[in-house]
Task: structure prediction
Amino acid sequence: MTDAARRDPEAVSNFVESFAAQLVEAGMQRMPARVFAALLSSDAGTMTAAELGEQLRISPAAVSGAVRYLAQTHMVSREREPGSRRERYRVHGDQWYEALTNREALIKRWEGALREGVSSLGADTPAGRRMAETLAFFEFVEGEVAAMMERWRVHREKLFGT
Amino acid sequence: MTDAARRDPEAVSNFVESFAAQLVEAGMQRMPARVFAALLSSDAGTMTAAELGEQLRISPAAVSGAVRYLAQTHMVSREREPGSRRERYRVHGDQWYEALTNREALIKRWEGALREGVSSLGADTPAGRRMAETLAFFEFVEGEVAAMMERWRVHREKLFGT
DNA sequence: CGCTTACTTCAGAATTTTGTGAAGTTAAGG
DNA sequence: CCTTAACTTCACAAAATTCTGAAGTAAGCG
Result:
């Protein structure tokens, strides 16, 4: 292990907390944000519940809650080491930001609410027309995001190799 | 005014509250979400502070706070009717979702935090490499979003005319 | 000028959210 | 089977946030 590669726990912690703070500002809950940042900055890309609790100074209950949220939103995955009841949580490196970008369920619900708005306020009213346009925008974005992620994969390969 | 265009206050209110609830779920604060939904579903696309307070049953203080937030994030604009100190708040129809999409300041800060992470954890460590890749992703997205919005304007014109 | 209307700011009450300890559940290991 | 380790759930205390009423500021109007 080179000097550059030796991890300074304080530097790691500084980064974890400052990156987590940015995620919080973007609307993420505090504990999930901290847990996620810790995983992101771990060399293996995985940590156990105990390691997370120790680094972040939080209770097992807090780890459990944060991890459940992160798994539900596909930001991390859970792995069971065979023949053990210790779990490992992993950032999927190239998949978590796809989860971030792909808010499909959310957009679908917005679209539902807007469609309802168009029909209940009347498609022939100014407000109804405004909502129909907004709806068209979301439908457009939905299609574009998929194409963008495909271009990213190509771009990524060019930058970092296969 | 046709029957279809006559506004049923209860239908409007139902839509406002349900759309606001979706915005809240996406991370927006409650009052800004309700105020924004009310503006979006108004025929004129503008409302005064008094109208907002009455429809949403909230105090002038709450209107003031919500509107300040919405103006800061470019979701609505404030207009002064000349020769009056009554203000009108307006959804810019085709601009608010651009504001939603264009989280440039946010992304810039994420990039800053990640750059710091790469250098403090070491560009030659596994964690550093993971963060460098994440950083590249955000840089990529930044460029793509601008192009996507340009395509939207073209698409929009095709759907709704100039 | 002063009155009045419209918005803003601020302190605090009320609500909501968050994180903990403790008890509960599950499954490995003896 | 029984013990114990690992995670989960739950009730509650603490902390943070939200919204209000009241006081403050500014600008039109007489």
Summary: The helical segments of chain B are 9-25, 30-40, 49-56, 60-72, 96-101, 104-121, 126-160.
